[in-house]
């Protein structure tokens, strides 16, 4: 014979089931999503490590990596642009460093991160690029190879490997104010020394540039701004290069000391106007459209 369950017992069973369901839901909500990294917080190595034997990388010409150079790309809802060219790049800002948490994992260009190599991460320089990083607080410098993307928080300019940060003397404090400048084969000490000891090459005198006439071909340019220092102009040029898929250069006529940042040339005025609209919307409202001779656009 089947015995009926009293109403009160049904009520208690219902309450217990509801409580169990709430516990399971709470446990599910509090679970942290799995991370690709084996530790939660980044840090340096356990104990002191002697890095005096490490040699800085020698800048050389390399093709762009197949990975890490997509432009534009987005991280945490923000869009970033990779520069078309790193030539002449100089910028000052805050450097951080990354270590054990990322050691052994893939970098943005597909290589394996080694915290004991002289490498770095940058948001917009082409991968790979060689840069000299100088700690503005103590004057120490190091050449690193940029093969990763970042840092993406805190208004930081560059993220160095643990080894590079240690050489610059800020591995204990986390960040430092630095200058970052691109170096190439021609700017390394060995190349400079070779050039100094090489015999001069006799060349023919350069052909004088003819004065502009009505027959000289002209093109359209965008003048973003004029600056009293070359460094200020270069910083703006680097930023514009990360925004536009168009030639950007610093112009300085011999007749004055003003550095002008210009974009172009453009064959059609309509094309120049399209880029003008982009720049004026991207915090450069003073940008203006100009027409100049193609054989001497610095005037």
UniProtKB/TrEMBL annotation:
Residues 39-65 have a biased composition (Basic and acidic residues). It is found in: Cell membrane. PROSITE patterns: PROKAR_LIPOPROTEIN, SPOR. InterPro entries: RlpA (IPR034718), RlpA-like_DPBB (IPR009009), RlpA-like_sf (IPR036908), RplA (IPR012997), SPOR-like_dom (IPR007730), SPOR-like_sf (IPR036680). GO terms for molecular function: lytic endotransglycosylase activity; peptidoglycan binding. Gene3D superfamilies: RlpA-like domain (2.40.40.10), Sporulation related repeat (3.30.70.1070). Its EC number is 4.2.2.-. It is an enzyme of class 4 (lyase). Residues 214-292 form the SPOR domain. One of its GO terms (cellular component) is cell outer membrane. GO terms for biological process: cell wall organization; peptidoglycan metabolic process. Keywords: Cell membrane, Cell wall biogenesis/degradation, Lipoprotein, Lyase, Membrane, Palmitate, Signal. Belongs to the RlpA family. Lytic transglycosylase with a strong preference for naked glycan strands that lack stem peptides. This is Endolytic peptidoglycan transglycosylase RlpA.
